[in-house]
Write a structure and sequence with these properties.
Elements: E1 26-38, E2 43-49, E3 52-58, H1 64-70, E4 78-87, E5 102-113, H2 130-135, H3 137-140, H4 144-166, E6 170-171, E7 189-191, E8 199-201, H5 207-215, E9 220-228, E10 240-249, H6 253-272, E11 282-284, H7 285-292, E12 306-307, H8 318-325, E13 329-336, H9 344-356, E14 363-367, E15 373-374, H10 383-393, E16 400-407, H11 408-425, E17 436-440, E18 445-448, E19 453-456, E20 483-488, E21 491-498, H12 503-512, H13 517-531, E22 538-544, H14 545-552, H15 583-588
Parallel strand pairs: 3-5, 6-9, 11-17
Antiparallel strand pairs: 1-2, 1-4, 2-3, 4-5, 7-8, 9-10, 10-22, 12-13, 13-16, 14-15, 14-16, 17-20, 18-19, 20-21, 21-22
Helix pairs in contact: 4-6, 4-14, 7-11, 12-13
Length: 599
């Protein structure tokens, strides 16, 4: 019989837990009809609840009333039944389901709810257009896959809470309606009826509230927080999403990293009954860019990037010469073991890919059976350059070298994109591997070419690294930060930092970012004021919970782990939101919609 937690007045057992141990016993079940098969003198129904499926059998010779009722039942009807468990004959055993050895001879049946013909069959759920799945999400969520995904999400959240509670953290909720502090993505704004013309912002993260809680002396806090960003969507983004957020007082970088590594260890042990290797590898941001072309490196495969600027230091090849004369110019490469894996057209496609992503182009070189180099630029290379290239890259017969020459960031990023593309194309990725890595010591600032100003790499509350902080007044782009991002299989799960705990330094950072005193007071005055009353050294991290569940569930889209997600155009297909509201509702919040004039 089932655990008492699931036992109700309408059932004694769960469908998926009926076994041969219950042979000869009477059971009462309730659920949805998964499939109906009419064999004339016998009718078979597959009954489904969240635990699984069990086969029901109806016979007119034994229980005529239940047989007659079963004749009118269709897929997705909700029913309850009472019957006796019996063993199936050997030739009818279904080894593909846990209940495949038994069936239930139904004595009594009751229709609890009828169903229209579903818009799609549950077994075809993964073949159905996603918009249809989202429109009829209540049907889609019945599929075993979505049941597994949402239950996995619950299990990971439960394990996270258990872990943090065991480490002295307390869970504190922070406001959903807050102040707009524009630094990052666009805010979602909420008009205030009681304060006409003024707005709340939905939080992009609970960052400032977390820090204020540290100022308030709570020492360690966490929350599984709802966050909102009005930005363009993709497979791993939603306008509303969930983060695991934590903050700790009196800590250094190692303390925060240690807590997060412990969290992953606990989740893998409790949810998957697996161990992960600790400590997790750490890479500096600059080394990650140099070697993998990204600050989100996937370490499940090779194809590492190598700098070959020294090989062409005195080159007669004009493009190489011009690039190296630029202070920020470099020449980098990726080596592929077997050049026969790529056709000439595919090489031309890689050249276009490099151009489309900001580089001037891409050069390829093949190593033939005689260790000679075959390439459009081979005739311009000196013998010394050929020899040095072979030695520098440890080249072998049939190797293929892909070369990009440009500014440092462009070269790294373009080869990083090509590295990822080739790993997928050449099937170099072990899809069953979970490979974590920390990327640390990011620059504190970066130059925003579109806005022509300095912006924060992380956020403006990030603590500068003391070894480079002296450049704040002279060359801010040389300043590094006390930051750490956790990456899993090439996807950024989350990022964190030690925070600034000095009000004057915080103001200085704001001014470097181009905020004047008025703007600082308007957007962050409440926070600066709090910093004037004693701030402990503190640090924390925010982690994308939806992304974490997606990756641990070996899925490719966070919509698969969210019960009611939005489409890529930020529309809820189920409810039809966003939607129009009445003039009266707009009037209440002092808003008037102005039609855009046609051009």
């Amino acid at each position: 019989m089932i655990d008492s937690v699931y036992k109700t007045a309408m059932r004694t057992d769960l469908c998926g837990e009926i076994s041969k141990d219950l042979k000869g016993m009477e059971v009462t079940l309730a659920g949805w009809v998964n499939k109906r098969r009419d064999h004339g003198k016998l009718i078979f129904l597959d009954l489904r609840d969240f635990s699984g499926i069990v086969q029901l059998i109806f016979s007119p010779d034994k229980y005529k009333n239940s047989y007659e009722t079963a004749r009118n039942i269709r897929s997705e009807y909700v029913i309850s039944i009472n019957g006796k468990v019996r063993m199936r004959s050997k030739e009818t055993i279904n080894p593909s389901i846990p209940t495949g050895e038994i069936e239930i001879v139904v004595k009594e049946i009751k229709i609890l709810s009828i169903s229209k013909t579903p818009p799609f069959l549950l077994e075809d759920g993964n073949k159905v257009d996603e918009n249809t799945r989202l429109k009829y999400r209540y049907i889609d969520l019945r599929t075993p896959e979505m049941q597994r995904n949402i239950r996995l999400r619950h299990e990971i959240a439960a394990a996270a809470r258990e872990y943090f509670n065991s480490k002295g953290f307390i869970e504190i909720e922070t406001p959903i309606m807050a102040k707009s502090t524009p630094e990052g993505a666009r805010d979602f704004l909420v008009p205030s009826r009681l304060n006409p013309g003024k707005f709340y912002a939905l939080p992009q993260s609970p960052q400032l509230f977390k820090q204020i809680l540290m100022i308030s002396g709570f020492d360690r806090c966490y929350q599984i927080a709802r966050c909102f960003r009005d930005e363009d969507l993709r497979a791993d983004r939603q306008p509303e999403f969930t983060q695991i957020d934590l903050e700790m007082s009196f800590v250094e970088v190692d303390d925060v990293i240690g807590i997060i590594e412990g969290l992953f260890s606990y989740i893998f042990k409790e949810v998957f009954n697996k161990k992960i290797k600790l400590p997790i590898r750490r890479i500096k941001w600059k080394d990650s860019m140099e070697t993998y072309g990204t600050d989100k490196p996937d370490l499940r495969y090779g194809l590492n990037i190598k700098d070959i600027s020294s090989v062409f230091g005195k080159s007669e090849i004009k493009i190489f010469n011009d690039i190296l004369k630029n202070n920020n110019g470099c020449i980098k490469s990726i080596v592929i073991d077997d050049s026969s894996n790529l056709t000439r057209k595919e090489l031309d496609d890689l050249v276009e890919m490099a151009k489309n992503n900001g580089a001037g182009g891409l050069v390829w070189i093949k190593v033939d059976e005689n260790m000679d180099l075959q390439s459009p630029i081979a005739k311009y290379m000196s013998n010394n350059e050929k020899r040095d290239l072979i030695e520098n890259l440890n080249l072998k017969k049939k190797n293929l070298i892909l070369i990009v020459a440009d500014k440092f960031i462009v070269t790294c990023q373009v080869l990083g994109i090509i590295r990822k593309y080739l790993a997928e194309k050449l099937k170099l990725i072990n899809q069953d591997e979970f490979n974590f890595v920390w990327v640390c010591e990011f620059p504190l600032f970066e130059w925003n070419e579109n806005e022509k100003r300095i912006t924060s790499v992380n956020h403006p509350f990030t603590k500068p690294d003391e070894n480079t902080a002296s450049y704040l007044g002279t060359d801010p782009l040389k300043v590094n930060s006390k930051t750490y991002d956790i990456i899993l299989n090439g996807v950024e799960l989350g990022g964190g930092s030690l925070r600034i705990n000095d009000a004057s330094l915080q103001k200085k950072i704001f001014k470097i970012l181009g905020l004047d005193e008025k703007r600082i007071e308007e957007n962050f005055g409440f926070f600066i004021k709090a910093m004037e009353y004693g701030v402990p050294p503190h640090g924390g991290l925010g982690m994308g919970f939806d992304r974490l569940v997606m990756l641990l569930g070996k899925l490719n889209n966070i919509r698969e782990v969210i019960a009611f997600p939005k489409t890529q155009s930020a529309v809820c297909m189920l409810t039809g939101s966003p939607s129009n509201v009445t003039e009266e509702q707009l009037k209440e919040v002092s808003i008037k919609i102005v039609e855009e004039e046609s051009k």
